[in-house]
Every structure is written in C-alpha cells, then in structure tokens.
Design brief:
Helix content: 25-40%
Order of helices and strands: HHHEEEEEEEEEEEEEHHH
Number of strands: 13
Radius of gyration: 24 Å
Oligomer: single chain
Strand content: 25-35%
Distance between the termini: 52 Å
Largest sheet: 11 strands, antiparallel
Strand order of the largest sheet: 1-5-4-3-2-6-7-8-9-12-13
C-alpha cells in the first residue's frame, strides 16, 4: 500500500495561501496596535512560518513510500533498528529535497529508512533509490554503491560515515536474525556485526583488523601504531574508535 497526498498547488493555494494569509493578518496595523510587546508579534510570525512549513511537508513527496509493518514482536531478543527502536527525529535528503525533524527509524536488517506518516497512524518505508543521505542519532549515513563504475568495491546500501578527510572511513551496519528451536518453539534473536571500509585513492577497501589498516597506510605504519599506544587504545577492545583515530592521524601526517 502506498501513501501520497495531492501534488503541486497553483498560485497561492494550499500551504502558501495559509502562510501569506497568516502573515497578512498578524501584520495588519489594526491588530498589531493592540500588542504592547513586540516580541509577541515576532513569535506570531514565527508560528505562521512553522504552520506553513508543516502544511508544505504534509503535501510533499516525502510520504510516497509503502506501508511498513514492524516485526519486533517476532523477536525474542534485540531489534532490527539502529541504536534504538523508538522513533527519533532526524534529517533526510530525499528526492533532491531536505526534510528536517522527521520521526524515523533505520531498519538495519532490511537496510531501509522508515518514517512516521504525518497523520501518526502509519509507518512509511521510503523509496530507497530516492534517498541520498540521512542523519539520525548523531550519525550521517550516505547511500553508496549505486555507481557500479566508481563504487564497484562495495555493495549498494547505506553507510555510516565515521571519518571524512583525505581518506574516509565508513561502517556498514549489519544485523541478522538467528533462529533456534529449543523445546519445539522457534526463537529468533538479533545479532549485529558491522563491516568497515576505508576509502583511499578512489577505492573502498574492506578493513577490520589493525593489520589490514596498517597494510593500506603502511607509509605511516610506525606513527599510527605509536598514536594508538599514546592513547592507550587496544584495537580489538575499541575497534571503531581506533580506526577513526588512525584515519585522522594519517591525514594529519600527510597534510
């Protein structure tokens, strides 16, 4: 099932007419003269702008995906989402437009971005091909692997950008469901194992161990090992942080 709202408006109809009507009303001298506090007038104008953008968002193309049905009730342990199973406001660059403060979930198992429909009744699975990037829980995800020529070393999907410099570090968040049948009943548990990719010289390199990164950055091998030692970082115990530090230090050494 797909959800969409009426398309483009002509002239000043729809949300635009609401916006300008509200501004006209609150800016008319006969109304403004009764306001002793000018801050109140500014607040009303701000509210008018917010109402306009809310109306515009409801009539946008953001809600044209298919209905998403949650399946957490089928899982005994864990959930399929990034960080939390609670809807959290985020930002998405969708169909060449940026939408902010959108309640969303990132289903890692399906690699799909889910948003709450504006009527708060449905969840909508956005059309993946229209998503360029999104920001949630302080993490910036990019849609990579769509260009088979320049991005042929990674699979198409959403990648968490951990470091963005001359070289770049990405994490592919992966969750999977493992089934077991104790006592003649199916038990499903969610496990997570992320993959990491270092982008250098136009190529994505699959990295996971300390040695795999040092092999790629061998011209600064000694300095990077020393940086980890100085910070008292054990790679296996703090893999993601160690990778970010090594990438950052490599850029510092090659300015």
């Amino acid at each position: 099932m797909k959800y969409s709202l009426p398309g483009k408006n002509n002239g000043l109809r729809g949300p635009a007419s609401v916006f300008f009507a509200l501004l006209f009303f609150i800016s008319t001298p006969s109304n403004a003269q009764h306001m002793a506090d000018t801050a109140m007038l500014r607040l009303q104008k701000t509210n008018a702008v917010n109402i306009y953008y809310q109306a515009l968002q409801q009539q946008s193309g953001l809600y044209n995906g298919s209905e998403y049905v949650q399946y957490t009730h089928l899982l005994k342990e864990g959930h399929p989402y990034f960080d939390t199973s609670v809807l959290t406001n985020g930002r998405v660059y969708y169909d060449r437009m940026v939408y902010s403060n959108v309640p969303m979930l990132y289903d890692i198992i399906k690699d799909e971005l889910i948003i709450q429909h504006y009527n708060k009744v449905f969840l909508v699975q956005l059309i993946r091909s229209k998503i360029d990037s999104f920001y949630i829980h302080g993490h910036y995800f990019l849609h990579l692997g769509r260009d088979s020529i320049t991005e042929g070393n990674i699979q198409e999907g959403f990648y968490d950008r951990l470091y963005d410099g001359k070289i770049k570090l990405y994490a592919k968040r992966n969750k999977f469901i493992q089934e077991s049948i104790p006592d003649m009943a199916v038990v499903r548990k969610v496990y997570q194992k992320d993959r990491y990719f270092l982008f250098r010289d136009g190529t994505y390199h699959d990295v996971y161990t300390e040695s795999s990164i040092l092999k790629l950055l061998k011209d600064e091998r000694a300095a990077l090992k020393q940086a980890l030692k100085n910070q008292k970082i054990k790679f296996r115990k703090n893999r993601e942080y160690a990778m970010k530090l090594m990438a950052e230090q490599y850029d510092v050494l090659n300015r």
